[in-house]
Amino acid sequence: MADTNASEETTIDASKEQYETVDEMLARHRQEIKQLQNKETELKKAAAKGSKAEQKAKKKQVEEDISKLSTKLKEKQLKELASQGFSSSGSNISKDETNEKKGDIETLVRAIAGVSVTVQQEHSKPSKSVKRREKRAKEEADREQRIKEEQSNVTSDRMVENQKLEKKLKPLGLTVSEIKPDGHCLYRAVENQLASLSGGASPYTYQNLREMAAAYMREYKTDFIPFFLSETESAEERFEKYCREVESTAAWGGQLELGALTHCLRKHIMVFSGSFPDVEMGKEYKSGNGSSLKLSYHRHAFGLGEHYNSVVVVNNITA
């Protein structure tokens, strides 16, 4: 009896779909996609439990399952759209869509983007607003695909970089202490190092360090301004704008700021890297009492740009 009821319900659902308008079909498609996205979110939350190894395995399984479900859903929706006459073989989409695969993908993108599409008569042209929406939807889909590809490459590069850095630090009895990637990482890493040296709190917060770096750069402007030559604005303007960003925004810091901080703090700074040669700054402040500041530079940490962490003695990681 249960099988009979299920069969009847499937028949009823199929019957309903046969009498859908194009807009109703697209609305249902969007709802199906939203349900799949919600399912993915729930599965990822459930996977974020257990050890790192378990989480990694669960996450991989979730990605594989969602990929299969997504592919299956797209194939189903493309088939349904084709049944309504949306095919590059005809003239229902546009005269330029001569490639079937391209036509199908662009049609699906319309559905995902929520663009209201109606079957057009032969020789009719879509309105400019529809073309603009379709173009934006296509560009967004392409952008997301590029991001996925870049993230895949970044993951691989990050693993190689971390392995090289670990191989370099381990013989020295050192390890990386993770710093929050919020744009203040360089200054937070220096703050972490100062706290480690003092055995308590750092005498300067990351914001203090930002202001100190900007003040030093302004005081010794002639040492820094050659880095700010520009064809569109004066070096003075670019330099002052840069200093304001250093002291009052979350702009990422780099070698210029490290150069300023090594003199402000009168500290030798050692920067380890798995992608580039190690860098020493402020050698004149180097002493044998272990007072050097140790940072690590990561080129592929998050796929967003450079990142700095604090380097500490193994089993002595501080917050």
Description:
The protein has helices at 2-18, 22-47, 52-83, 100-113, 128-169, 185-198, 206-219, 221-224, 235-248, 255-265; strands spanning 174-177, 269-273, 279-281, 293-298, 307-313. Mean pLDDT is 79; it is low at 6-12, 88-105 and 115-123. It has two domains: 2-158, no CATH class; 173-313, Cathepsin B, Chain A (Alpha-Beta Complex), CATH 3.90.70. It has 319 residues and is of the alpha+beta class. The chain is 59% helix and 8% strand. β4 (293-298) and β5 (307-313) form a beta hairpin. Residues 174-314 form the OTU domain. Residues 136-151 have a biased composition (Basic and acidic residues). Residues 40-64, 81-101, 117-159 are annotated as: Disordered.
Salient structural properties:
alpha+beta; 5 strands; 10 helices; 319 residues; single chain; Cathepsin B, Chain A; 5-stranded mixed beta sheet
Q: Strand-and-helix sequence, N→C?
A: HHHHHEHHHHHEEEE
Helical content class: 55-70%
Give the N-to-C terminal Cα separation: 62 Å
Overall pLDDT level: 79
Lateral arrangement of strands in the main beta sheet: 1-5-4-2-3
Low-confidence blocks of residues: 6-12, 88-105, 115-123
The amount of beta strand, in percent, is: 5-15%
Structural class by sheet pairing and helices: alpha+beta
Q: Report the biggest beta sheet as strand number plus sense, adding barrel if it closes.
A: 5 strands, mixed
Rg result: 28 Å
What is the count of structural domains?
2
Per the principal axes of the C-alpha atoms, what is the gross shape?
A: extended
Counted beta strands: 5
Family: Belongs to the peptidase C85 family.
GO biological process, one term: protein deubiquitination
Biased composition (Basic residues): 126-135
Region (Disordered): 40-64, 81-101, 117-159
